[in-house]
Amino acid sequence: MADVCLERPREVAWWSAADLAEQASTSTATVVRACQNLGFTGFQHLRMLLLRDLGATSGDDRERQEAPRTRMGLMRTVFDEVARDLTAALAPLDEDALDAAVAALARARRVVVIGNGASAHWAAAVAFRFVLNGRPAEAPADAVLQQVTARHLTPDDVCMAISDSGVNPYTLDPVEAARDAGATIVGVTGHARSTLVERSDIALVVGGSGPWSAHGASSTVVMLSFLIGLQVAVCEARDGSAEAAARSLNQVVSLLKPTN
């Protein structure tokens, strides 16, 4: 199956799993298992990333010929690359896992969001959006406080851990503490084969496991976009509304206005 993909990638990108199985003289089930053994979530994940990479390859010559010679040209290049990466970012996401995560986050008594390093600001941002829409949540910034907080969770609570790599030990330690406490672990990562996925009750994989283009911008945009979408889905599951969020934001703005 892998040989067929290497020899005929442009055709495989538009085939079904049954088409690939026929060309590789095997079964559809074997195709799916082979994709998973190669690190993909399934055939559709492989196909979507093939489409993304083929699109990037077809544009390589043109981009080299039209290399940005101005700052605006560079800006357009970055935006184009981010837009291309976004189109395939949801390919590895499991729909059932997404539904389960939304349900768990919506009904949880307490939600603690964990993120460290480059993921710390994502954790803070999504926690703020949860609170803004009436979903109590917290995102401790200190690693020690994360550990202590996680140990006091209960089976009625959710620990949502965000790590693009899925192997950050400062994030995995609170995850283990939350698991020991009986909380539901929702892991958000860009790598299907990672420790965070293994230790999560519900794993949400977005983006891809390869190096991202757009001068390192794509992974940030993809993850933040996904977390915003997740927050909106949880808000809707809790019968939230954009109007309620706007009222909350207006209250925050009024608190920040100087009295004099």
UniProtKB/TrEMBL annotation:
Record-linked InterPro entries: Homeodomain-like_sf, HTH_RpiR, RpiR-like, RpiR-like_SIS, SIS_dom, SIS_dom_sf, WH-like_DNA-bd_sf
Signal sequence bounds: none
Gene3D superfamilies referenced in this protein's UniProt entry, alphabetically: Glucose-6-phosphate isomerase like protein, domain 1 (3.40.50.10490), Winged helix-like DNA-binding domain superfamily/Winged helix DNA-binding domain (1.10.10.10)
Keywords: DNA-binding, Transcription, Transcription regulation
Location of the HTH rpiR-type domain: 1-57
PANTHER family tied to this protein: GLUCOKINASE, HTH-TYPE TRANSCRIPTIONAL REGULATOR HEXR-RELATED
Protein's name according to its UniProt entry: RpiR family transcriptional regulator
